Every structure is written in C-alpha cells, then in structure tokens.
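User: I've been trying to design a sequence by hand for this structure and keep getting stuck. Would you show me what you'd pick, starting by listing the structure so we're on the same page?

Assistant: Good idea, let's start from the same input. This is the structure you sent:
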C-alpha cells in the first residue's frame, strides 16, 4: 500500500508540473501555435498510469484559456478534442516502446491531427470562412503557416519532456550524474 501512495504522489507532482509548465509557456509571449500542450499530451499518455491522463493537456489549456480568453465554442471543442487525442496517441504509440524515432513519428502525427481537427473546427464555426468546399480549402490553405509552428513546437517540447524524464530517471535517481571516463 505504501508503494501505491508513493506512485500517486509522484503522479500528482508530475501532473501539476506539466500543467504549470504548459500554463506558464502559454502565457508568456510566443510565436502563434508554438505551445507545449500537444507534447504534454504525448508525455502524459506515455508515462502516467492514471485512467484520465488525457485530461492533463485539456486542464492546462482550460486554465490558460481562462486567463487568455475563450473563443468560439466549436473551435474550442475541436482544439480541446485534438489535445485529448494527442494524449491517446502517446498512450497508444509510446507506452510500450519509447525510441527517438517513435517519439518523432508520434509528434508529427499529433501535430498533423491537430492541424486537421482544429482547422476543421474553425471552418465549421462559420466565423471566418463560408461553409462550402471553397471555404474549407481556404481555411486549410490559410492555416499552413501555423502548421510549421505546431510541428516545430510538438517536436521541440516532446524532445525536452522525454529527454528530461529520461535523464532524471536514469541518472539523477540512480545517483549516476556523471559516468565519464578519463581521457
């Protein structure tokens, strides 16, 4: 029973740290769509044993949106849904085997599904583009520059989160902070 409590305490620390990390980075000035939320979803899906791990990126997004301001409900729903999917992708593709290749591939998949779903939500909201095929095409074409930032941020923050966790669990925890040989 004691080990289970420690595991929960570690999860709570990780969860709160991830949410705080996301909130702070969303509130600081940054390029459009350069956010850690998707990578946090991947990380949470991969490492956390909670049944509702997918709520972590959504909670961070909700708290930061509360400060930044909410937007059209259909657009919001598509964005929130997409970040929940990012967490599910982390669980599905990374939980059993974590390699740099798998992290990179899953981050690309996550950024791409975010691009598709969030822009579909923008189009469906009808606020910017007409609800017809021309409007849909225009929506996706106009969103292409934002995809670059989404992809770069997903890769960048995934690398930061997974590498930091790897370092902390393999070197700091074991007390092997330096295993260098003399030259």
């Amino acid at each position: 029973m004691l080990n289970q409590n420690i595991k929960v305490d570690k999860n709570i620390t990780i969860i709160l740290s991830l949410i705080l990390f996301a909130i702070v980075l969303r509130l600081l000035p940054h390029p459009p769509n350069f956010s850690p939320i998707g990578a946090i979803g991947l990380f949470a899906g991969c490492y956390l044993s909670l049944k509702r791990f997918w709520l972590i990126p959504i909670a961070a997004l909700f708290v930061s949106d509360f400060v930044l301001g909410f937007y059209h409900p259909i657009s919001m729903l598509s964005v929130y849904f997409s970040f929940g999917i990012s967490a599910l992708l982390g669980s599905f593709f990374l939980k059993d085997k974590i390699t740099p290749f798998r992290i990179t591939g899953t981050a690309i998949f996550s950024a791409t599904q975010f691009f598709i779903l969030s822009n579909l939500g923008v189009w469906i909201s009808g606020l910017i583009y007409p609800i017809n095929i021309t409007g849909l095409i225009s929506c996706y074409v106009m969103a292409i520059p934002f995809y670059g930032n989404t992809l770069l941020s997903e890769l960048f923050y995934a690398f930061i989160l997974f590498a930091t966790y790897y370092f902390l669990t393999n070197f700091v925890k074991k007390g092997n902070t330096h295993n260098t040989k003399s030259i």
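That's my pick for every position. To get oriented when you compare it with your attempt: The CA atoms of residues 80 and 100 lie 26 Å apart. The radius of gyration is 18 Å.
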